[in-house]
Amino acid sequence: MFSKLMKRSNAVWLYSTGRFAEERPRFLFDLEECSRSGWHMLRQTNRLLLAIAKRLNVRQRMPVTEQQIVQAAGDWVSKTCSARCTDATRDTATKRFIFVAKRWLHFLGKWDEPDRTSQFKPELESFLKELRDQRGYSPETISTRNSALNLFFEWLGKLGISLKELSPKILAAYFVQRKARGWKKTTIKAYGNSIRVFFGTQPSRVCARPG
Question: Whole-model pTM?
Fold first, then answer.
């Protein structure tokens, strides 16, 4: 697969000797056969898989966690995007990394989207449906919005906080805790944007800008 995607021998060597070189081509072959992805998309996915493999252990016994995926995305974006990159570029890169990582990990049996938000499930499903059916958002963006809100709602559920009880102070505390746990500024911005978009569709809810 690597020799089909790249012409230069040094690039073929880099990808064929990189971390988890057995698992990456299996996923690429599956994409080629099942989704008929074009070569441009396969090349992009191939580059991302190596970046993901460097930051996540796909052979660990336990499933990879959402926190691990998010932190890996933040680390990659902070090291890949230059200071000149716009917030929109960083946001798009974060979404793409997370989307590809989850698809690959699901293929390997290391990831299933957890159902952790029963308390807020109607609001979340309504929001995602609006993004998909009315706004025409891409699968990558919807996946990122879903991940961001899943983590946020899980945190609210553990504290016993309802959406009606939210305040700017509570939202700020959430992102302070995320930062303390190793989240990069790029990840906080990307996930903070998802939460802001959600509250933008909830007129009666509080909406604060994460710090």
Answer: 0.65
Q: Are the C-beta atoms of residues 178 and 192 closer than 8 Å to each other? A: no
Q: pLDDT per residue over 2-15, tens digit each?
A: 777 777 888 888 88
- The amino acid occupying position 97 is F
Spatial separation of the C-alpha atoms in residues 171 and 87, rounded to whole Å: 21
> What is the helix, strand, coil percentage profile of the chain, to 5?
70, 0, 30
The closest alpha carbon to 147, from 162, 170, 130, 128, belongs to 128
HSE (CB half, 13 Å, CA atoms) of 95?
22
Contacts of 49 (CB under 8 A, 6+ apart): 24, 27, 28, 100, 104
Domain ranges of the chain: 1-55, 69-211
Instruction: Classify the phi-psi angles of 44: left when phi > 0, otherwise alpha if psi is within -120 to 50, otherwise beta.
Output: alpha
For 167-180, write each residue's pLDDT tens digit: 888 888 888 888 88
* Average pLDDT over the chain, rounded to an integer: 82
- The candidate with the shortest Cα–Cα distance to 68, out of 51, 55, 85, 82, is 55
Q: Which helix (H) or strand (E) holds 17?
A: helix 9-17
